[in-house]
Amino acid sequence: MNQPLPLTDAEIAQLRAETKGTAQRIHFNNAGSSLPPDVVVDTVKAYLDEEAVFGGYETEAKYTAQLDRTYDLIAQLINAGREEVAIVESASVGWGLLFNGIDFKPGDEVIISEMEYVTNLMGFINARKNHGIKITLIPNDENGDYSLRALEDAINPQTKLIAVTHIPSTSGGMMPIAEIGQIARRHNILYLVDACQSAGQLPVNVESIGCDMLSVTGRKYLRAPRGTGFLYVRKAVQDKLKLILMDSLAAEWVSEDDFKARPDARRFELYEKSRALTLGLGKAIDYALAIGLDKIWMRIQHLASLMRTELRNIDGITVHDIGSMQCGIVTFSVAGIDAAEVKTRLSAKQINVSVAKAISTLIYMNKHHLAATVRASVHYYNTEEEIRTLCSVLEEITKA
């Protein structure tokens, strides 16, 4: 396959011009919530304006085709079948519907990693309390990489599920999800991937990953509105999952005392949701696809690598990212200054970052004795100049 050409300076300038927020602040909190393109905001606002004038059901009827197309765009984004995706309010909702839909029995084993997000960890523990499952942790090695050999060695007849977060919330490392998928397929074990930070940042191909289930949020690297997300369930797995919530969208009546689940992944979603946000999600995915996920990923890797290099050149700053695969999330600390204070001082200079708290990925953070770090997450619309500005302000902070 030919290597894609990088985004040109003119293309980046155009993308920034189509995102009014870039003129106001330097936004390095894309792992929290990206600045949406203007077209996404305008799409949501225009739909809401029409609802206010014509009515909610009437406006929905007018936009049926556009709303329906969002499912096709999701399928295209992750290389899935249209019947394998459903729209939900967030990745946490999607992940919870999928994980809790598994028919766990006492003694079933779930294999996880040290990079799991707090919501997922709570889900595992809750299943242990309610169903008597066993949780097996595969730690990263001394280089910060997930041990595929340890995973192979851990699998046994009680292993019911392998669940991993592709890109953790508080580290720039990444999990080898395709290689994990190969192991899961070889042993015929269910495989659930949290792709909350992945979609929109790099190409996500469920066939290449080999996952059975996947959850995604819209607000992060996809640049969609908050309150949007989607899930993926492989067609062959859908009937194996219990329905946690259902309504007349998820199922149809067979008789007065029985119903039948619909024959696609939309059995996992409910009828009532924001149509305006659904359109916004579709528009954001369309926008990302038009740029090209390969180009986006190339740009993000370049910017993140540059940021790490520049930060390491500043006395008093420690970059905490480890692992042979790294992404657009950069975590660091400033000697003698609390992460929250660093965030406050940067905000005063119109620079947005986030605080990566221990609670978000508790096992990983405790292992490395980190209470909190500063998280600066880049996107393709960021610039080298913005990185230099960040580093200049941080140098001032370290010398204050």
Task: Report on the architecture of this protein.
40% of the residues lie in helices and 17% in strands. The chain contains 14 helices and 15 strands. It has helices at residues 9-17, 38-54, 56-62, 64-78, 91-100, 118-131, 148-154, 177-186, 206-209, 275-291, 293-312, 339-348, 362-367, 384-399; strands spanning 26-27, 85-88, 109-113, 134-138, 159-165, 190-194, 213-217, 229-233, 251-255, 258-261, 317-319, 329-334, 351-352, 354-357, 372-377. The strands form four sheets. It has a seven-stranded mixed beta sheet with strand order 2-8-7-6-5-3-4, with helices on both faces. The protein has a four-stranded antiparallel beta sheet with strand order 11-12-15-14. Strands 1-13 form a two-stranded parallel sheet. Helix 8 links the parallel strand 5 and strand 6 (190-194). The radius of gyration is 22 Å and the shape is globular. The mean pLDDT is 96.
CATH superfamily of the largest domain: Type I PLP-dependent aspartate aminotransferase-like (Major domain)
Q: What count of structural domains?
A: 2
Based on Cα principal axes, name the global outline.
globular
CATH architectural label of the largest domain:
3-Layer(aba) Sandwich
The helix tally amounts to: 14
Mean pLDDT: 96
The side-by-side strand order for the widest beta sheet comes to: 2-8-7-6-5-3-4
CA-CA gap between termini:
50 Å
Topology order in helix (H) and strand (E) letters: HEHHHEHEHEHEHEHEEEEHHEEHEEHEH
Approximately what portion of the residues adopt beta-strand conformation? 15-25%
Given as residue ranges, the uncertain stretches (5+ residues, pLDDT < 50) are none
Percent of residues in helices comes to 40-55%
Major sheet details = 7 strands, mixed
Helix/strand-derived class? alpha/beta
Instruction: Enter the CATH topology name of the largest domain.
Output: Aspartate Aminotransferase, domain 2
Under the CATH scheme, which class of the largest domain?
Alpha Beta
The number of strands is: 15
Organism: Mucilaginibacter terrenus
InterPro entries: Aminotrans_V_dom, Aminotrans_V_PyrdxlP_BS, PyrdxlP-dep_Trfase, PyrdxlP-dep_Trfase_major, PyrdxlP-dep_Trfase_small
GO molecular function, one term: transaminase activity
Cofactor: pyridoxal 5'-phosphate
